[in-house]
Amino acid sequence: MKELLFSAGLFLGLFYLGLILVYIIGVWKVYEKANQPGWACLIPIYNIWVLLKIVGKPGWWILLLLIPLVNVVIGIIITHNLSKSFGKDVAYTIGLILLPVVFYPLLGLGDATYRESEL
Hints:
Elements: H1 2-33, H2 46-55, H3 61-64, H4 70-85, H5 90-98, H6 100-109
């Protein structure tokens, strides 16, 4: 029984690490498509600064992300602006919010192109 639990735990742990890796690769590619350094997605706080730059919002919006409940609204706005900057619609924004591990790799590795002028 212990071996079975260990095997199941090992499998789930490796599966989870795989999902994290797929997500990181997707976000990395999104940053690179937006002409930003891909490694920036790995650095806490700086990744938000760069994301705000990608979506055309001022850096002081980081402060809005520190306010409870306001941060949820601002996060949705940022995510929607990210979708729009790659030519996607509201449905894609919902996908980025609810299934980021699927939609960020699709955005980063797919054929979507960054359109800075649409912001």
